[in-house]
């Protein structure tokens, strides 16, 4: 059997059907208005990261849950069309697929209403965990605690490096997951949820004390603050200067690129730069870049 030369990255977490409306104005008070354009597509933290892994040249297997409603199958098809292997996803009988209504105004400001889905099942026993054994990295988000916890534990037992997108969620979920992960890469709201009231540096040191080898927080156009267990001095990887048009998903793409760079065995400074370049291009274009675009931006500096 021919072997796939691309490094395998397994991703687990949220997948959402995004209904995006481009509007002239987000009108108040509520009234009947027309949209300029409309797009239907796959979103969700880990799903967006999976698309990034695949577009940047990795082999991505995604594990997530959708309902067997009108949105479920088309959502998985949309991910598959981007090269993501969704063959092990769960189409939950009687489940409701997560969906979002995204309103984007002409200057790129957005308003999002998300429905997290229903009856998708939290039991992770269907996950084919042995697939992780052949992976070079595992990535998850905090949207499915039970699945993330058991896959992180399996990956750790097998020595596969793990990354979490430490996004905004309940504090108890991050307190449960962070000690199980190698690379804790938070968003600013997520870091505040993990260590309420602490300054970023102090919160990141907490994650190292919890057992992480790298702790980082992405700060949009201010770049990424990070430290390692080996050297807990705070360091900053600056953001690439771009004209941002739509920053939705820049963090998700950053995480996918980060996991792929880890899978490729790159040193941490390079991982941060590679992920920053991918995130910046997503913010510039509102679309996930391919490998050549990221390499070009990296060469330009
Ligand atoms: N306007 C921007 N210009 C350049 N790079 C950006 C910009 N916005 C994001 N990035 C890059 O992407 C990374 C992640 O962005 P950010 O911190 O905004 O993620 P986030 O808060 O998780 O948001 P989301 O998940 O909605 O994308 C940043 O650290 C940076 O490297
Ligand atoms: Mg994010």
From TrEMBL:
From which domain of life does this come? Answer: Bacteria
Database matches in Pfam families: PfkB
Question: InterPro entries annotated for this entry?
Answer: Carboh/pur_kinase_PfkB_CS, PfkB_dom, Ribo/fructo_kinase, Ribokinase-like
Q: Which GO terms describe its cellular component?
A: cytosol
Q: Name one GO biological process term.
A: phosphate-containing compound metabolic process
Which family does the similarity line name? Belongs to the carbohydrate kinase PfkB family.
- What's the name of the protein? Sugar kinase
Q: Which organism is it from?
A: Falsiroseomonas bella
């Amino acid at each position: 059997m021919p072997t796939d030369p691309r490094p395998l990255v397994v991703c687990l977490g949220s997948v959402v059907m995004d209904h995006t409306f481009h509007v002239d104005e987000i009108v108040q008070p509520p009234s009947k208005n027309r949209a300029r354009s409309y797009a239907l597509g796959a979103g969700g933290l880990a799903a967006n990261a999976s698309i990034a892994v695949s577009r940047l040249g990795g082999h991505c297997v995604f594990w997530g849950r959708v309902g067997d409603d009108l949105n479920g199958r088309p959502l998985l098809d949309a991910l598959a069309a981007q090269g993501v292997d969704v063959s092990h996803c769960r189409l939950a009988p009687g489940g409701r697929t997560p969906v979002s209504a995204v309103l984007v105004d002409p200057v790129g400001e957005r308003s999002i209403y998300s429905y997290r889905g229903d009856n998708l099942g939290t039991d992770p026993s269907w996950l084919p965990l042995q697939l992780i054994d052949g992976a070079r990295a595992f990535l998850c988000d905090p949207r499915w605690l039970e699945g993330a916890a058991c896959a992180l534990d399996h990956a750790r037992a097998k020595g596969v490096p793990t990354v979490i997108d430490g996004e905004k969620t309940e504090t108890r979920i991050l307190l449960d997951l962070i000690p199980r992960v190698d690379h804790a890469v938070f968003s600013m709201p997520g870091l505040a949820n993990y260590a309420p009231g602490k300054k970023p540096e102090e919160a990141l040191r907490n994650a190292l004390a919890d057992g992480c080898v790298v702790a980082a927080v992405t700060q949009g156009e201010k770049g990424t603050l990070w430290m390692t267990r080996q050297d807990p001095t705070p360091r900053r990887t600056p953001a690439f200067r771009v004209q941002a048009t739509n920053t939705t998903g820049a963090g998700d793409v950053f995480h996918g690129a980060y996991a792929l760079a880890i899978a490729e065995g790159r040193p941490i400074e390079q991982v941060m730069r590679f992920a920053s370049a991918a995130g910046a291009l997503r913010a510039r274009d509102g679309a996930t870049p391919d490998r050549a675009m990221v390499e070009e931006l990296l060469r330009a500096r």
